[in-house]
Design a protein that fits this description.
1 helix; 5-stranded mixed beta sheet; 24% strand
């Protein structure tokens, strides 16, 4: 990962549906190479929360009923206004998928 690459953060929270065990193995395999960046990941009983080297947050879930028939995909993207007095989040219509 180039150390000189500028901070490239697009969204505040991305949701993804994937196979969690395989994802956790892949994240673990690159952790040492991404040392010194913002990269990190944690797993709890709901999801894996991964932070990209530039600070983007992705919450990765196994397929579950709240996502309907979706088995692989991105059920939501949340953006937060940088003005601390005005916070706005946008979700996929009809889904209360945000787990934060």
């Amino acid at each position: 990962m180039p150390a000189t690459r500028p901070f490239d953060r697009r969204a505040d929270d991305l949701g993804s549906i994937v196979a969690l065990d395989a994802l956790e193995r892949r994240l673990g395999s690159v952790a040492a190479r991404l040392a010194g960046t913002r990269f990190e990941y944690t797993r709890d009983d709901k999801c894996i929360t991964a932070v990209s080297p530039w600070g983007n947050v992705m919450r990765c879930y196994a397929p579950r009923p709240c996502f309907g028939r979706m088995r692989l995909g991105m059920p939501y993207v949340a953006f937060v206004n940088r003005n601390p007095d005005q916070t706005q989040r946008e979700y996929v219509p009809g889904r209360d998928a945000y787990a934060g």
